[in-house]
Amino acid sequence: MQDLKWWQKTTVYQIYPKSFLDTTGSGTGDLRGVAAKLDYLKTLGVGAIWLTPVYPSPMVDNGYDIADFTAIDPSYGSMEDMEHLIAEGRERGIRMVMDLVYNHSSDKHPWFIDSASSRESRHADWYIWRDPKPDGSAPTNWRSIFGGSAWTWCEARQQYYLHTFAPAQPDLNWENPAVRQALYEAANFWLDKGVGGFRIDAIVYIKKPEEFKDGEPDSDDGLVNIHSMIANTPGILDFLHEFKEKVFAGHDIFTVAEANGISPEELDKWVGEKGAFDMLFEFSHTNLEFPTGEIWCQATGYRPELIPKLKQVLTESQQATAENGWYPVFFENHDQMRCVEHYFPAEADKERAAKAMAVLLMTLRGTPFIYEGQELGLGNVAWDSIEAYNDISTQGQYEIALKEGKSPAEALRIVQRYSRDNARTPMQWSEEKHAGFTQGTPWLPVHEDFPRQCVTVEARDGDSVLSFYRKLARLRCSGEAAEVLQQGDYTELLPDDPAIMAFRRRLGGRSVYTLVNFSGEARSYELPEMAGAELLLESVPGSTLGVLRAYEAVIYTH
Ligand code: NOJ
Fold it and tell me: Ligand 1 centroid to 219 CA: how many Å?
């Protein structure tokens, strides 16, 4: 039996603080609001909270554009509020995990203001500056992840600066040791405050290639997705191992990096004992509809044929960490649509869909990450004009869709599916006004389903999605299945079934079986090894061994 660390045995809950709970009537959530809900989170078996950025920010990208790495944005409260939250969490066995956004800062960060002021400034080489091409155009044809050129012109320096994301998010120059030192110091500041770990943003972009070259355009705008030009550039691991040594090593914390595209062969340098991080988020299961990269209007939409692919990538990710390393398990975050829409057709029973994803989340091997509202089974929103959307990436993708020849109505339909705002609507606490999120005017409209889908209503209903999550939390924390779910190995079952995802977790002599039917029809299956198994949990009352009803999920053991 492995000796698991605390963060391998717990469940992490991700909070988008702006949308969690407003205690001041400002219309945006705050840190006191998070502290007020710690007891609620305990009922979900949560041992750590990943807080998306709460630092001072002009909020161009809702906090992922940071103007000070060691302070709290006044809209979220004060440093005392943060200390209070850390202390209240500690009393309940819940640790705070900060988001480190170190690929870039805000263009309002004093470092960038100084860097942009002249080529001789103190911070002149803290960002990525390049001269124009001889014709005055941008140094390369790279497209930023939010759309448009990845380069913006600076009059004062007569140079362009690079931004993997928005122009308001200039990339930091990690080649400069002073930059790295300043970032490490900021992370150590939070360790001194007692945080329990870090989620590390967009880390695959920190190392830039030695030579900056044009790429083959991948769309009519003549640009190429920057991801394909700079992600995981050789040499990045030297930076990451230094980062580990100067910050994370020797602390009882966990680190989880946003790092897509790491092959199983190189995984041991990224995670595990010898790796730079404890875990990394990889996105093969959330990117299934995006065969060509990040452009939303090229996505396929939901198709039942994606389910075998989903099964395959989930199994591959389980296998990748079978011997070394550990993965988070997640189906939602603040950048994704709601999972009940993602993996099920529009006509599916959303409650069953939400429970099916809950079963997968809590029974795959790894640390489950629940994203706020997922435990209520929330779905997407569909606002009827592009102006209603706040997310910068939604605006950029809408423009790309129009340039690609889509009509405004088609472009709107595309963003309705993929917009990051789908996951950012205010948390639904009660049937009261604005779902109990605020006494003021919510910064983003509350989902219209809130009178039916909210914490108070679902807590009263023993069959709700929330009650189901609570049962799953108990299953993972105590009883005979708990150890198997935490530590057992993973074997895929029924690999050829196009609609049922099935697997066995095993530890010693005990097995736990998970079966999920992604189709809207009843399906039978044959698994002789399950004969005599005992039912642990069912998403629809009255299940029978050997048959799954539409969108049904079950857990058995023997
Ligand atoms: C990934 C974050 O999850 C996303 O919300 C953000 O826009 C980008 N990184 C840029 O920081």
Answer: 23
